[in-house]
Design brief:
There is one protein chain. By secondary structure, the protein is mainly α. The chain is 57% helix and 0% strand. It starts with a helix and ends with a helix.
Length: 243
């Protein structure tokens, strides 16, 4: 990584992101003094060439290195994608959920049984427009709020396309478990906290898939799309996944 970072800086000495990258890598490699010298050299270059100072972000990085507070990322760290870094995210008007007390009570009872190790299948059925999706979404959001360690996902069946795609609910659920969540989050189907929980669980899900379900790739899951998400969120596992 240091070789490539030095090459980037050599190609464009005024590329600030490249300078920051080189400073970090030098520090991670135990060469913090060289990282400090790199900053000072860059600051002198900026002043001489265009008469400006480094960005505040770069100066803050310099301060962290000088104070010894910059530490390498942890192995198997999870990296949030751009759409989840902003905690406010899209502002979506959440509709008010009323009624369905009996159905919600039954679903909560089933959840309690599942958490106690007695899980079972529950179907939500009804005519088109009867509120099945709203009920499922509300239940998932409540379940996630009351059980912070719970990973809640959903899949839909379609009376018109079900014959052609009988595994649609399972492929959708597998997609959510492996980070295919941006569209659902942007559309207000899941909250930001729900989306982050699903994204941050991706390394564990990937490991289970690699160990227990490699045949699911390119059947229930698009291998190419999953590899792209893995590169963004769990780069330490990308090599094994690609193989």
């Amino acid at each position: 990584a240091l070789v490539h970072a030095r090459h980037l800086v050599a190609l464009d000495p005024l590329h600030e992101r490249a300078q920051q990258c080189l400073m970090r890598l030098l520090t991670y490699n135990g060469q913090s003094n060289q990282a400090l010298v790199q900053y000072e050299t860059y600051a002198d270059l900026l002043a001489e060439e265009i008469g400006v100072a480094p960005l505040d972000e770069t100066t803050q990085l310099y301060t962290k290195i000088r104070n010894g507070s910059l530490t390498p990322p942890k192995p198997n760290a999870i990296y949030l994608p751009a759409f989840l870094k902003d905690k406010n995210g899209y502002v979506v008007d959440q509709s008010v959920f009323v009624g369905r007390t009996r159905e919600m009570t039954r679903l909560n009872h089933s959840l309690d049984q599942t958490l106690a190790g007695k899980g079972h299948v529950v179907f939500i059925i009804g005519e088109a427009g009867s509120g099945k999706t709203a009920l499922a979404n509300e239940f998932l959001q409540r379940a996630m709020k009351s059980n912070t360690d719970l990973l809640a996902v959903r899949g839909r069946s379609n009376a018109y396309t079900g014959i052609g795609d009988p595994y649609l609910p399972f492929s959708e659920m597998m997609g959510m478990l492996t980070g295919e969540i941006e569209a659902r989050w942007a559309g207000g189907e899941i909250t930001g906290g729900h989306a982050r929980s699903l994204w941050c669980s991706m390394p564990d899900v990937l490991q289970v898939l690699l160990d227990k379900g490699p045949d699911l790739f390119d059947r229930f899951l698009s291998g190419r799309s999953l590899l792209s998400r893995a590169r963004a969120g769990a780069p330490d596992q990308v090599v094994e996944l690609a193989e």
